[in-house]
Amino acid sequence: MSVWRCASLSSEHLWTASIFQIDATWLALTGLYALALVVVGWRLFKEARRPILDRDALRFWAIVFGVVALFAVNRIFNLQFLVTLAGRCEAAGEGWYESRRPFQFALIVTFAVAGAAALALAVKRTREADRRLVLIGLCALAVLIAARAVSFHWAEAVLAFKIAGLSLNGLAEAAALAPVLAGAAHKRRRY
């Protein structure tokens, strides 16, 4: 059964872009992602205009800009829910939807371990403090988005908790985006 066919069977499983579900969290995070794109874009621009071109730095900041742009599009359009929907439909179609909990838990643990391993490797291979900060933030964002896509209900319940009108999910995403902003805004030493 195709994902679209499965989605059409039940209104509770329909995907809607979060751009149509605007709330304080969506506005705050969209603004934060826009700020991150401006700050990372400015850093990329500054790296490109250095008298002695550092191709590694230029490549790093170009990749960071692309990844932040992808995460921003994901936030705006709620794309990870499409992955959740595809997983639900596949599980229902194959008959193991009711026993999905161990699989979901294993996926979340796998994402956390893979994120920690990727972070450890990236930090070990990176000498610059600004880049390390950015990598910490990007790894945390990737793990958070992947964990949300798995759709473990108790985790969703915790992340949906609101503090001052902002969901805990949004606060966690903002906290993960903060090192990206700090690293991109960090003034590079002149050699």
Give a quick rundown of the structure.
The chain has 191 residues and is mostly helical. It has helices at 3-9, 24-48, 55-77, 80-94, 101-125, 129-150, 153-159, 168-185; strands at residues 162-163, 166-167.
C-alpha termini separation: 59 Å
Poorly predicted runs of 5 or more residues:
none
Helices and strands: which structural class? Answer: mainly alpha
Form type: globular
Number of domains: 1
Portion in beta strands: under 5%
The largest β sheet comes out as:
2 strands, antiparallel
Measured on Cα atoms, how large is the radius of gyration?
Answer: 19 Å
Percentage of helical residues? over 70%
**Which sequence of SSEs, written as H and E, runs from N to C?**
HHHHHHHEEH
Kindly report the average pLDDT value: 84
Strand order in the largest sheet: 1-2
Q: How many distinct beta strands?
A: 2
Topology:
Blueprint: H1 3-9, H2 24-48, H3 55-77, H4 80-94, H5 101-125, H6 129-150, H7 153-159, E1 162-163, E2 166-167, H8 168-185
Helix pairs in contact: 2-3, 2-8, 3-6, 4-6, 5-6, 6-8
Structure description:
Helix 2 packs parallel to helix 8 (168-185) and helix 5 packs antiparallel against helix 6 (129-150). The protein contains 8 helices and 2 strands, in the order H-H-H-H-H-H-H-E-E-H. The protein is globular. It has one domain (20-185). A two-stranded antiparallel ribbon has the order 1-2. By secondary structure, the protein is mainly alpha-helical. The model has no long low-confidence stretch (mean pLDDT 84).
